């Protein structure tokens, strides 16, 4: 392993570079310099410490070269604080519109309540406790989503040599089903809402728009006018398989709402309050109807999926319209828990024209 040195244009400093070869990019800077002619004791001390550090870097580079093709990983490649490794992984694998990975790190920090944890302290029991922390704090798929990302990080760390055995290998991710089933709207309730005035017409338009498009609150709140071209809406949701945005064809009701909003909107299609404020408007609006259900914004997306399913739309199509890469969520989360019309359903069972003798009263 050789080191090259080169003076700067003024000639007062000498910079050092690695020499891995003669091709482009094979002479990276070490980040270390010395004063060519030190003027005082401070600069002399700098040169002494810089040259000592240079020897350390040279030694590390030699060990890295020699360990290629072996199972040995140099100790200087490891981070003392596992949170630094976690954060580095998050930054390297960050994806627009997906906050699960970043949130998993945030929740792990809150769980630890400290800014330092050594890799040796990441044990199977700690992983179980973190999973329990998430299950106690969140419902639905959120605990599973966050813990799954945590497992990704530990799997990568195991591959990088931090662990001999992955601490999460026997600790599976779990969801936490809500005790109360989420309500949804039926066809008649859609129609009643359309004819019921609301104190905030913009919130009403937005909620109806979600009912007819299946968009989430976070997506519709950021919906821009240029995303809509005629009856086509290009969402912010990116398909995992194709890498392309999901494109929806707008229902006539949704298209009318878009034309109505264009008259006053300049950038965003809707100007909305906070999610909490919008749900309060919904509660007041629903109180003026005959709909006796606890409805929040997420119920619009659920209703969208259920009513399409009632019309025998296939799961892959519904999954695409909702921005999912598989039908898993449609079959597990966005489904009808109770039959729409029990009487009609029961009457599908066979009934003879003449009742048998033992049923005659």
Brief overview, please?
With 361 residues, this protein is mostly helical. It has 14 helices and 6 strands.
How would you portray this structure in words?
With 361 residues, this protein is mostly helical. The chain folds into three domains: 74 residues; 82 residues; 156 residues, hpI Integrase, Chain A (Orthogonal Bundle), CATH 1.10.443. Helices cover 45% and strands 9% of the residues. The protein contains 14 helices and six strands. The strands form two sheets. It has a three-stranded antiparallel β-sheet with strand order 1-2-3, with helices on one face. The chain has a three-stranded antiparallel β-sheet with strand order 4-5-6, with no helix packed on it. Strand 4 and strand 5 form a beta hairpin. Helix 7 runs parallel beside helix 11. It is elongated, with a radius of gyration of 31 Å. The model has no long low-confidence stretch (mean pLDDT 85).
